[in-house]
Design goal:
This protein has 236 residues and is α+β, with helices and mostly antiparallel strands. Helices cover 28% and strands 16% of the residues. It is built from seven helices and seven strands. The chain has a five-stranded antiparallel β-sheet with strand order 2-1-4-3-5. A two-stranded antiparallel ribbon has the order 6-7. Strand 1 and strand 2 form a beta hairpin. The relative contact order is 0.10.
Length: 236
C-alpha cells in the first residue's frame, strides 16, 4: 500500500460520527491511538479502517496524522466495538462517548498502559554475596527473609515497612530481581468409581465400532436403571 492510510477514530466528544486521521501503516480496529483534537491531545479508538491508497480517495493535506498507537494492551475485541455501536444507535448517542463510557478510566487517557510487575522478588548473586551491616536492621531483616525464597511486595512489607524503597534500590543496583514464575504441573484427578451397570454401559460404548447412536436418558442423579447391556438404548 502506497501513501498514507485513512482510519476512522472514535473520540470522547459530544459529536456524532467518527473522525478521519492518517497513518503511515494500517492500524487494527480496536487499537487505542493518541490523536490531536482541536488544541488537545486525546485518546481515540480506531473503529473503521478505510482501505485504499492515498489520493484520490481523500485529500491528505486536509487530515491530521495520529500521534501514535498506544502500547500495553491488545486491540479491543470486535464484540466490544459491536456492542458500543448497538448502544450508540439504540440510544441515539455519539459513538465516541458511548464507547469511552464503557472503558475503564485508565484506558481513556492518551498514554500507554503499563502493567504492574507482580512477580515476587529474589536476591541476585550480587545481593546474596553482600549482607547488609547489622546496624541497618530493616535492610538486614529483609535480606534474611529473602534467603528463604521469593517474596511478593505484601510479604516483604510485612517484614519491614521500608521494603518498597529497599527493593527498588536493590533492583536498580542489581542486587535483586524478579522470580520467574512457572505454571503448576497439570494434575488429573482420579476417575470416579462406576457401579456395575455403569461399567457395563461404558464397556459397550468402548467396544462399538464405527458410528452408532447411543441414547442416555433419565433425570440427572437418578442412577442406572432399565438398560440391559447389548441393547441400543441405555437409560439412566
Amino acid at each position: 500500500m502506497n501513501g498514507p492510510v485513512r482510519i476512522q477514530v472514535a473520540v470522547d466528544v459530544p459529536l456524532a460520527g467518527t473522525f478521519s486521521y492518517l497513518t503511515e501503516s494500517p492500524v487494527m480496529p480496536g487499537s487505542r491511538v493518541s490523536v490531536s483534537f482541536g488544541n488537545r491531545r486525546v485518546c481515540g479508538v480506531v473503529v473503521t479502517p478505510i482501505p485504499g491508497e492515498g489520493v484520490p480517495e481523500f485529500d491528505a493535506a486536509r487530515l491530521r496524522s495520529i500521534d501514535g498507537v498506544l502500547d500495553g494492551l491488545p486491540p479491543l475485541p470486535e464484540e466490544f466495538l459491536a456492542l458500543a455501536r448497538f448502544a450508540s444507535d439504540y440510544y441515539h448517542h455519539p459513538l465516541g462517548q458511548t464507547l469511552f463510557t464503557a472503558l475503564p478510566t485508565g484506558l481513556r487517557e492518551p498514554r500507554d498502559v503499563i502493567r504492574p510487575d507482580r512477580r515476587p522478588f529474589v536476591l541476585t548473586d550480587a545481593g546474596l554475596s553482600e549482607a547488609p551491616p547489622a546496624r541497618q536492621r530493616a535492610r538486614l531483616a529483609l535480606w534474611q527473609a529473602l534467603q528463604d525464597g521469593p517474596l511478593d511486595l505484601a510479604a516483604a512489607k510485612a517484614v519491614t515497612p521500608q521494603a518498597g524503597k529497599l527493593l527498588a534500590d536493590w533492583l536498580a543496583e542489581g542486587k535483586a530481581g524478579r522470580a520467574t514464575l512457572e505454571p503448576p504441573p497439570l494434575r488429573l484427578g482420579d476417575a470416579p468409581a462406576l457401579n456395575g451397570e455403569q461399567q457395563a454401559a461404558l464397556d459397550a460404548l468402548s467396544a462399538s465400532e464405527g458410528f452408532q447412536p447411543w441414547l442416555l436418558h433419565g433425570v440427572t442423579g437418578s442412577g442406572t436403571a432399565g438398560w440391559t447391556p447389548g441393547t441400543a438404548t441405555p437409560t439412566w
